Amino acid sequence: MTRLEAWSVTVMRGGRRIVDAASVTRAAPGLTALIGPNGAGKSTLLMALAGLLRPEEGAVLLDGVPIAAIDRRTLARRRAYLPQNARCEWPISVERVVALGLTPTLPPFGGLPPSQRARVSEMLSQCDLAEKRDQPATTLSGGELARTMLARAMVGDPEVLIADEPIAGLDPRHALDAMRRLHACAGRGRLVITALHDITLAARYADHVLALKEGRIVADGPTAEILSPALLRDVFGVDARIEQGEFGLAVRFVEVA
Ligand code: ADP
Ligand code: MG
Question: How distant, in Å, are the alpha carbons of 46, 82, 83, 228 from that of 162?
Fold first, then answer.
């Protein structure tokens, strides 16, 4: 069973504790929604959890091994990381971008084996990108690029998937599709941790919610147990109503007078 642990992780930037003594343990399977206001430290914490940033204090362990000590290729095979606002810097096709997600599992030379090509095609269809297969990724719309980048992160079916705001900028159908796929990924035994601002979708699809405020974890637990108007008020400073609707929980923020 895959287990990711952060022990008192502190990240300093500009003399400030951007992430302040954050401790969290997650074992697969499960989908965790990381919520918190802009600047709370979500992206920074996710980078530390992904082993892409070495915290000033504390440690991140993957199956008990300090993540910094894991060979980079092994780590790249085991966990995928989708940065916030992932960009494509040069014009390669959507298919190639998605196939890049398989790089850590491929031999250093030669073309894609047929099984991997099939996997890329399957991912393109799942993400509604089949028609975009040959289009340069630099010419995609913001939402199409976001879907391409999520497909790239998911194509290798990693044990640990860390996705920073994967549905930002997606239209409702594609946002729901993406959340369903992340949920299914957790259902297959994977560990998924994702920063989200859509609290309704977080409430509906996440098994756990981790709330971050000013670099500190202020709540961590099963979604149904901890997601409350009081928590949302504390974290976002906005009143909210949480209702059980036909399709699961619905969160409505109340207009501030
Ligand atoms: P979130 O993803 O929750 O919006 P981030 O992790 O991106 O937040 O950033 C957390 C905070 O760290 C922000 O307030 C940001 O301005 C600050 N920050 C990030 N890098 C630096 C830096 N190099 N110098 C000063 N502040 C920084
Ligand atoms: Mg962020």
Answer: 7, 6, 8, 25
* Domain containing residue 66: CATH number: 3.40.50.300
Among candidate residues 128, 129, 118, 250, the one with its CA nearest the CA of residue 177: 128
Q: How far apart are alpha carbons 52 and 71 in whole angstroms? A: 12
Of all ligands present, the nearest one to the C-alpha of 35 is 1
pLDDT tens digits along 178-234 = 999 999 999 999 999 999 999 999 999 999 999 999 999 999 999 999 999 999 999
**Rg of the chain over CA atoms, in angstroms?**
18
What is the Å distance from ligand 1's center to 39 Cα? 5
**Residue 38: how many other CB atoms lie within 10 Å:** 6
Closest ligand relative to 39 C-alpha? 1
pTM over 0.90: yes
The number of distinct structural domains making up the chain is: 1
> Do 102 and 120 form a contact (C-beta atoms < 8 A)?
yes
Identify the sign of the CA torsion 170, 180, 164, 156.
Answer: negative
Which amino acid, residue 41? Answer: G
Task: List the residue whose alpha carbon is closest to atom 20 of ligand 1.
Answer: 13
What residue numbers bound the domain in which 144 lies? 3-255
- Ligand 2: centre distance to CA 161 (Å): 16
Alpha-carbon distance values, 108 to 74, 104, 134, 198, 255 (Å): 14, 9, 24, 39, 55
Sheet of 79-82, strands arranged across: 79-82, 160-164, 191-195, 30-35, 208-213, 216-222
Whether the per-residue pLDDT at 257 is higher than 70: the answer is: no
- Residue minimizing CA distance to atom 15 of ligand 1: 39
